[in-house]
Design brief:
Keywords: Heme, Iron, Metal-binding, Monooxygenase, Oxidoreductase. It contains 17 helices and eleven strands. Helix content is 45%, strand content 11%. The structure holds protoporphyrin IX containing FE.
Length: 431
């Protein structure tokens, strides 16, 4: 799509089967669409595939139509579940899970390669599950598989959505979201000592508050937490996997990041979040990874108004507008040497803010529906990387050079790393 937009411009109209899609590939056009009071593009597109997936379930936040219900649920999430204070309260979970990851790595037999991608996937899933549900799930892998089935479609490229009027295509089988999660109440009864509140506890507590302007029924709560779960898992996993891959592919950057961590942490035996405040270079490394490999590469919206013009072109109501984050984050107009991994461009921490006001850098989206999980994601990503880089040196498989690492991307709405990252962890003991 980037190549097409280089040929046809930063606002491009594509006709794919029965769908008309406008693709935005420049910061200037994103600014025009999302800046100010314009709310015409604050809804994600619905579709036959999504309608079928959601039928019989309450709509949570991610797919909620732009309106009062979404506004209230979003306010609840931002204030009561994902605020800085709430993210702080899940700190012990992240630190425990990071300790567990370090002990798994430390006990791997010397000389044996470990699948770093798989370990990162487990870490992200377990720490998200514990923050949401309060405990690990005994059938986690089955649960993750079920979630993967439920989300393994895109609203733009599914056959049902490309041919919304075809009855035949609508009859294609679709995996259902029939099995949801184990009873939170059961666990609570057994294990309700002095543990910190998980997200479900918080939402159940809010049910009874008179000031709530939205009905937090069990179905709504279920949809909201499943939204948070699905929004959090892939994105954080992809970001962490790419960061480790870029670090081993760029030994200079790896060395600089490790020197910073080891200097800041001194001789600590355990990495805790309090020690991470001064890791400026590590934060630059994460920002650069999110620029080069934005986990959500495209974000789709639908036009809600009749009278919209972008760059002087009329955009009919119902048109899907897709913002190509990946292309904008690699546009040579904004970035010197855009395809190269250079964290130094973010060393001045104020240089680019990813909270939606610097439109050339929008890995978390833009506008009113910008990702509400930024603080949660930063905390998770920082603690894992700090642990991996503090406690271990990393060696490539025998005979592989850093420039030979397979960095092939798999494109979709997200851009995953195709090959798993297999490395030798060499424990590092402070002198
Ligand atoms: C590196 C990690 C992450 C990235 C890159 C990311 C990126 C995004 C993007 C691009 C969007 C769409 C924004 C838009 O349409 O403008 C989004 C939405 C969302 N994200 Fe994230 N996200 C990340 C982590 C998380 C986490 C950890 C959570 C929750 C704990 C989360 C919760 C959500 C939710 C609930 C929405 C929907 C918001 C709405 O529709 O109002 N995300 N995210």
């Amino acid at each position: 799509m980037r190549n097409l937009s280089q040929q046809y411009g930063p606002l491009m109209m594509l006709r794919i089967c029965e769908r008309v899609i406008f693709v935005v590939s420049s910061a200037e056009v994103v600014r025009e669409v999302f800046k100010g009071n314009n709310t015409a593009f604050e809804q994600r597109p619905s579709s036959p595939a999504l309608d079928e997936l959601h039928s019989g379930h309450a709509i949570g936040v991610v797919m909620a139509p732009y309106g009062e219900q979404w506004r209230q649920l979003r306010r609840i999430i931002v204030t009561h579940v994902l605020s800085t204070r709430c993210v702080q309260s899940y700190r012990r979970i992240r630190e425990d899970e990071a300790d567990h990851l370090v002990s798994v790595l430390a006990s791997s037999p010397p000389g044996q390669l470990v699948n770093v991608s798989a370990l990162i996937t487990d870490f992200v899933a377990d720490s998200a599950i514990r923050s949401i549900f309060g405990d690990k799930l005994p059938d986690r892998d089955e649960f993750l598989k079920m979630m993967e089935h439920a989300t393994e479609f895109s609203t733009i490229f599914d056959l049902r959505d490309l041919f919304p009027s075809s009855r035949l295509v609508r009859m294609l089988p679709r995996s259902g979201k029939d099995k949801i999660f184990q009873s939170h109440a059961d666990r609570k009864e057994v294990n309700d000592g002095d543990r910190e509140k998980d997200m479900i506890d918080v939402l159940l507590g809010l049910q009874k508050e008179a000031s709530m302007r939205v009905s937090l029924t069990p179905e709504v709560i279920k949809s909201v937490v499943m939204d948070i779960f699905t929004a959090a898992i892939d994105t954080q996993t992809i970001c962490l996997q790419w960061t480790m891959a870029e670090l081993v592919a760029n030994p200079r950057v790896m060395k600089k990041a490790q020197e910073e961590i080891r200097r800041v942490l001194g001789r600590k035996e355990r990495v805790i979040e309090e020690s991470l405040r001064d890791l400026h270079y590590l934060r630059a490394v994460i920002k650069e990874t999110l620029r080069l490999h934005p986990p959500a590469a495209l974000f789709p919206r639908v036009c809600l108004h009749d009278d919209q013009k972008i760059q002087g072109f009329h955009v009919p109501r119902g048109t899907i507008l897709v913002t190509n984050i990946w292309a904008i984050c690699r546009d040579p107009k904004y970035w010197t040497d855009p395809d190269t991994f250079i964290p130094e461009r973010f060393e001045d921490e104020c240089a680019f803010d990813f909270k939606g006001s610097d439109f050339e850098y929008i890995p978390f989206g833009a506008g009113r529906r910008i990702c509400p999980g930024i603080t949660f994601a930063q905390a998770t990503i920082e603690i894992v990387l700090a642990n991996l880089l503090y406690h271990f040196d990393w060696e490539l498989p025998h005979g592989v050079k850093s420039e030979e690492i397979d960095m092939t991307e798999v494109f979709g709405l997200s851009v995953k790393k195709k090959a798993d990252l297999l490395l030798h962890p060499i424990p590092w003991i402070p002198e």
